[in-house]
Fold this sequence. Notes:
By secondary structure, this protein is α/β, with parallel strands linked by helices. It has one domain (25-336): D-Maltodextrin-Binding Protein, domain 2, CATH 3.40.190. It has twelve helices and eleven strands. Helix 2 packs antiparallel against helix 10. The N and C termini lie far apart (79 Å). The mean pLDDT is 94. 2-keto-3-deoxygluconate (KDG) is lined by residues 36-38, 76, 93-94, 149, 175, 196, 213, 217, 238. 2-keto-3-deoxygluconate binds at residues 36-38, 76, 93-94, 149, 175, 196, 213, 217, 238.
Amino acid sequence: xxxxxxxxxxxxxxxxxxxxxxxxxxxxxxxxxxxxxxxxxxxxxxxxxxxxxxxxxxxxxxxxxxxxxxxxxxxxxxxxxxxxxxxxxxxxxxxxxxxxxxxxxxxxxxxxxxxxxxxxxxxxxxxxxxxxxxxxxxxxxxxxxxxxxxxxxxxxxxxxxxxxxxxxxxxxxxxxxxxxxxxxxxxxxxxxxxxxxxxxxxxxxxxxxxxxxxxxxxxxxxxxxxxxxxxxxxxxxxxxxxxxxxxxxxxxxxxxxxxxxxxxxxxxxxxxxxxxxxxxxxxxxxxxxxxxxxxxxxxxxxxxxxxxxxxxxxxxxxxxxxxxxxxxxxxxxxxxxxxxx
Length: 341
Ligand code: KDG
């Protein structure tokens, strides 16, 4: 009788094991928390959903990626410090608030650095981006991919910005980053550093006059409710870093690490696509919502870019002159190969 029970139990166990793909059997059951400062309807949500679906499919639903939105786990810098402490797995964060951890990241904050998304993708996904990823590992952060925050534009409640002098006296919120502070002070603004999570209320209470962000962020953060003017300046391009805690990363199996690398790239492609389609849609939505939208004329955009050049000179030392020089060389090479941009 005992033998029969044993045979039945063994048969059942083999049957169960066969039900889970062999590949999935090598994965532990785990939940990976990833946080961000924007709302879930921002294109970062599309990236996280694509990454989560990819990870679930490749691990038989054993690896679950759970998103936390609106700064629920803290702002960009706070969440990044939690990764370095090993108390949180992932964050999708702008590079700008992290320059205190890695000054070289400041190169991405230089005003008018990239001319278009194609340049940004080529730099970030190429040798330059890989070098920055290696530098991040040295401060306890595994950068799995560059996603897109995007080209930044100015909103405010006082006036349309038609030339750099129009920033004179406008209390502009900027990210907690010296290069952004300098860029807006250099144009006469009263620049105020502030975490993203505080911006809407500060605009609503008129503690500040304006802020600057990509169109999808302006729209999904409902800034049209507290801002009158939207001026298309494209004065900077901010990448998102998709960071994993190195302390926690080193505890993952090679198979788990491979799934996350592959799925974060799938998420990148979905997020960039959604961001670029979303920017066009957001502009129309913001116009319909009543914002007064203006684009800088080409001559005034050139004047603003030339006026901002002094910021490059003041921050090259802090960023690393080798980093700034290398970026310049890479961009010159790209532009020579694609004269049309
Ligand atoms: O978590 C990312 C957001 O906080 C992002 O919107 C940061 O662009 C940003 C800003 O202006 O703080």
